[in-house]
Amino acid sequence: MKIKIAKQNLETILNSLSRIISVKPQLPILNCSLFEAKNGKISLFATDLNIGIKSNVFGEVIEEGIISVPVKLFLEVVKSLSSGDIEITLKDLSLEIKSGKTKTSIQCQSGEDFPVFPSLPTSTSEIDSQKLKIIEKYVSFSTSLDQTRVVLTTLLFRKKDDGIQVVGTDGFRLSVLSFNEEIIKGFEDFLITNKAFSEVVRLSEQQSTEKVLFEVSNELKQVFFKVGESEMFVRLIESAFPPFEKIIPPDFETIISFDGEEFESVLRQATIFARETSNIVTLEILEKSLKINAAASSRGDFEGEVAVENVRGQAGKVSFNVKYLQDLLKNVKPKQIWMGMNDSLKPVMFKEIDNEHYQYVVMPFRLNG
Questions:
Q1: What is the pLDDT of residues 192-235, one digit of tens each?
Q2: Chain mean pLDDT for the chain
Q3: Per-residue CA distances from 299 to 55, 123, 131 (Å)
Q4: Side-by-side strand order, sheet with 102-107
Q5: Into which CATH architecture does domain 2-113 fall?
Q6: 301-324 pLDDT, tens digit each
Q7: Minimal CA–CA distance to 249: which of 347, 142, 338?
Q8: Does the domain spanning 248-362 belong to CATH 3.10.150.10?
Q9: pLDDT tens digits, 258-284
């Protein structure tokens, strides 16, 4: 193998591949990327056996070749180089990288030992990249990072008579986004990890693609994506998603609405005092305002208010982990917030005013005494 390639192009691809490399891979070879120069194309492939990405990168192929190169080491070396073209030459199992007056060698493994990348199905559907970004904005932040309960790290894509639903939950809060159109055609319900989904979104942004091709294979238990010059496969999660519809209250005794920016400002101040008490803040609905309280025995306490509109029902008090409220504000950025509650221990719903397609449900925190 002998190629010439722009440093920035190679670094961009290696950044994407490094994100899917496991900290403790099942096999030593999975620390590597398959690096191939063939038929005038340069491609790199990495996988953790659950997610795999193969990307083509523009460059000049002088001699063909294939090798397995340690991804993170390769990325570190490339990042350290000056901008411009890099010359890469394979000598036995050593990859020689020349840039300006510097030369680096990386010890590699045989390309024959690397897992095979599955073929992309010939029959594919497509989805608008903007729809993927909307899903990430409204749903992804509600998924869990805890790998001991993998199903809570997933997004549920669920077919409905008039469109689809995308659902995410970590067991303490729930996001449900509905589309009243068939943005995905011909599929059965499936679960995909949010890590994999976010990588698809990142690739679509990186490559400025308007459409993403994909195909769900229930037979292979995989979903395939084609994003610009990259292909990706993701192993579907075969677990039962929590019965989320049972969590969503059918009606609410008390309903209010209030300004999102004002609420965010008050919560930011309350957080200073909530840190000592497991990030707990208490919201109290009054006749014309929403009072926010946070207290720390060794630091002091905070009390703030935001004006409310459209009050229906009685006054009430409920406590939350402030992070769940701030996540909604940071990601969705609602200008006006609709809030519905029953009693202090039942799920509370938040929505954007004038957006009936999204529901955010949060479990309250039980206060002692």
A1: 999 999 999 999 999 899 999 888 887 888 999 999 999 999 99
A2: 92
A3: 53, 62, 45
A4: 59-63, 2-6, 85-91, 94-99, 102-107
A5: Roll (3.10)
A6: 999 999 998 788 887 899 999 999
A7: 347
A8: yes
A9: 999 999 999 999 999 988 888 999 999
| Fold of domain 125-245 | DNA Polymerase III; Chain A, domain 2 (3.10.150)
* DSSP-assigned states of every residue in 79-131: HHSPSSEEEEEEETTEEEEEETTEEEEEE-EEGGGSPPPPPPPSS-EEEEHHH
Domains 2-113 and 125-245 share a fold: yes
23 token code pair? 């900290």
Q: Is 313 left (phi over 0), alpha (psi -120 to 50) or beta?
A: left
Give residue-wise pLDDT tens across range 2-43. Answer: 999 999 999 999 999 999 998 888 889 999 999 999 999 999
Strands of the 109-110 sheet, one edge to the other: 109-110, 65-70, 32-38, 41-47, 51-57, 230-235, 222-227, 211-217, 125-128
Domain boundaries, the chain: 2-113, 125-245, 248-362
